[in-house]
Design goal:
By secondary structure, the protein is an alpha/beta fold. The protein folds into two domains: 51-313, UDP-N-acetylmuramoyl-L-alanine:D-glutamate ligase, CATH 3.40.1190; 320-457, Alpha-Beta Complex (Protein-Tyrosine Phosphatase, Chain A). It contains 15 helices and 17 strands. It has helices at residues 3-24, 32-40, 44-49, 65-78, 93-103, 124-127, 146-149, 152-163, 284-300, 304-313, 339-351, 380-385, 397-406, 420-427, 441-457; strands at 55-60, 83-85, 114-118, 135-138, 170-174, 189-194, 220-226, 229-233, 246-254, 257-264, 274-279, 320-326, 329-335, 356-361, 390-393, 414-416, 434-439. Helix 2 packs across helix 5 and helix 4 (65-78) packs across helix 10 (304-313). The protein is globular and about 70 Å long.
C-alpha cells in the first residue's frame, strides 16, 4: 500500500471521528471534519474527485447556490444515482472535503455517480487547483460581504480566474444577469432566463452591475426583474441577453405559493417542450434557482422530469423560505444577507397580501461581513407601507433600529430585544396569522433551531 493511500485512509478515519464528536457535542460540524482530512492528506480532494463516475457539477454565485445545488442533487438521487453534495452550504474547501469524506468508506473508496458541489466565489479558484468541474453553473453576482469582496467587480474577477482553469467545462449561466452571462463568451454555454416582465409588486432597489461588462457603457433596460437582472442591452457594443435554452413563463406568485412553466426554447435535445412547476417555495429568485437546476440536469445527463419532480416536492433549505406552524400561526424564515437578497425578501413580504408582522435579525460576525452599511441600500420604506410591526434583535440591532427610524417607522411599531428567543416571543404576541423572520447568515441557524422547537411544542 503506497503512502498516498495510507494518507487518504487516515484522512477519512480522522474526519469520521470528528463528525462523531460533533454529533455528540450537538455541534453542526459541517466543515470541521474536512479541515482534518485536508491536513492529513493535502491531495484528499483530488483523490476523491477522481472517483466520481459521471459528472462533477459546481454551483457558484452570490445568491441561490444552496437551493440550486441541492435541487440538482435531489433530482439525481430521484433517478437512483449515488450523489455527493455539501447540502448544508459549507462551501469552502473544508466543507467540500467534509462532504466527500462523509460518503467514503474507511479504505478511502467513494461510491459516487455525481458530485454536486456548492462553492464560494473566493474558494473556487483554490478548489480548481485540486480538481475541475464538468458542469459549472453561475447563478448571479451581487454585492455581498463588503469587507471581504468590496464591489462585485472583485467577485467577478475571482470567478474569471477560476473559469480560466476549467476551459473544458460546460457552463450554465443566467441570461438575465449582465455580470455573469458574459462568462459564456468563447465557452460552451447554455443559458436560462425569465421570458416575461413579471410586473410583481416590488421594492425600490439600488442596482449593481449596471454597466456593460464588455465596453463599460451604462446598460439600457426594458424592465428589471430584480437587482440588475432583467431585459438589457448595451447601446455601445450591442451586448444583450443571450438566447436562452430554457425559460420561465406564466409565473404566478401569491401568499407563499409559486406556479410557472419551464419552456424548452429548442436549445436542449431530449427535453420536453414544457413542464409545469408548482411549489410551496415562493419568490421570484426561486424561479431562477429552479431554472438553473433544470438546465444543469439537462446538460449533465439527469432526466429533466426528475428535476421537475424534485422542485414539486422540495422542502426549503433551512432559512430559505422555511415555513413553521406555531400555535395556528405561520412563520417564514428567510435568509437575507445582502442588499439584493434582502430586497427580494421585502418583495416577498409585499406580495403576501395577508396581514403580517416581522422579525429582523442583524449580526456582523466574520461570516456575515463586518461592514453592515449595506442595510441603507435596502428598501425598508416599502416595508413601512405594508403596515407590519417589526421586532429587532442581533448584534447590530440598534443599527437596524436606526435604519427603520429613518425609513419612517414610528416607535410604537418597533421593539428591540436582546436575543432571538425573546424577539420571537414578542413578534408572535400579535394577532396576525403570518410572520416573516428576515435574518442574516449567522442568525439563520439559531433562528431555525428556536422556530423548530416552538413548532414541535405546537404552542407559543
Amino acid at each position: 500500500m503506497d503512502l498516498e493511500r495510507i494518507k487518504l485512509m487516515l484522512a477519512v478515519w480522522a474526519s469520521r471521528l470528528v463528525m462523531l464528536l460533533c454529533r455528540i457535542a450537538r455541534f453542526r460540524g459541517s466543515a470541521l471534519p474536512g479541515k482534518y482530512a485536508l491536513r492529513l492528506c493535502p491531495a484528499f480532494l483530488a483523490a476523491a474527485a477522481a472517483q466520481v463516475r459521471k459528472k462533477i457539477i459546481v454551483v457558484c454565485g452570490t445568491n441561490g447556490k444552496t437551493t440550486t445545488n441541492n435541487l440538482i442533487a435531489s433530482a439525481a438521487e430521484l433517478e437512483g444515482f449515488a450523489v455527493v453534495c455539501n447540502r448544508a452550504g459549507a462551501n469552502m474547501l473544508n466543507g467540500i472535503a467534509a462532504a466527500f469524506a462523509q460518503k467514503m468508506d474507511f479504505l478511502g473508496r467513494l461510491d459516487c455517480d455525481y458530485a454536486c458541489i456548492e462553492a464560494d466565489e473566493a474558494t473556487l479558484p483554490l478548489l480548481f487547483d485540486h480538481f475541475t468541474a464538468d458542469v459549472i453553473c453561475a447563478t448571479n453576482l451581487f454585492r455581498d460581504q463588503l469587507d471581504r469582496y468590496g464591489e462585485i467587480d472583485i467577485a467577478s474577477a475571482l470567478l474569471k480566474k477560476a473559469f480560466d482553469k476549467a476551459p473544458d467545462a460546460v457552463y450554465v449561466l443566467n441570461a438575465d444577469d449582465p455580470v455573469t452571462s458574459v462568462f459564456g463568451n468563447d465557452r460552451q454555454a447554455y443559458y436560462y432566463g425569465i421570458m416575461q416582465n413579471t410586473a410583481l409588486v416590488c421594492c425600490d432597489e439600488v442596482r449593481d452591475g449596471g454597466s456593460c461588462q464588455l465596453c463599460g457603457q451604462p446598460l439600457c433596460y426594458d424592465y428589471y426583474n430584480y437587482g440588475q437582472l432583467g431585459r438589457y442591452r448595451c447601446a455601445g457594443c450591442g451586448c444583450q441577453n443571450p438566447l436562452i435554452s430554457v425559460g420561465a413563463d406564466a409565473i404566478y406568485i401569491k401568499d407563499g405559493e409559486l406556479d410557472f412553466d419551464i419552456v424548452n426554447t429548442g436549445g436542449l435535445a431530449g427535453v420536453p417542450p414544457e413542464a409545469h412547476i408548482h411549489s410551496g417555495v415562493a419568490g421570484l429568485y426561486n424561479v431562477y434557482n429552479m431554472l438553473a437546476a433544470y438546465c444543469v440536469c439537462a446538460v449533465a445527463g439527469v432526466c429533466p422530469a426528475a428535476a421537475a419532480e424534485a422542485m414539486a416536492v422540495q422542502q426549503p433549505e433551512p432559512g430559505r423560505m422555511s415555513r413553521f406552524e406555531i400555535g395556528g400561526k405561520c412563520v417564514y424564515l428567510v435568509l437575507s444577507k445582502n442588499p439584493t437578497g434582502f430586497n427580494q425578501s421585502v418583495t416577498s413580504v409585499l406580495n403576501d397580501c395577508r396581514p403580517k408582522d416581522l422579525l429582523l435579525v442583524l449580526n456582523d460576525n466574520a461570516q456575515d461581513g463586518e461592514d453592515i452599511s449595506w442595510i441603507w441600500d435596502v428598501d425598508f420604506e416599502s416595508l413601512m407601507d405594508s403596515g407590519a410591526h417589526c421586532t429587532i434583535t442581533g448584534q447590530r440591532r440598534y443599527d437596524m433600529y436606526l435604519r427603520l427610524k429613518y425609513a419612517g417607522y414610528e416607535q410604537d411599531r418597533l421593539w428591540v430585544k436582546d436575543d432571538i428567543t425573546s424577539a420571537l416571543a414578542k413578534m408572535l404576541e400579535s394577532d396576525k396569522n403570518v410572520y416573516y423572520a428576515l435574518v442574516n447568515y449567522t442568525a439563520m441557524y439559531p433562528a431555525y433551531v428556536a422556530l423548530t422547537k416552538l413548532a414541535q411544542k405546537g404552542v407559543l
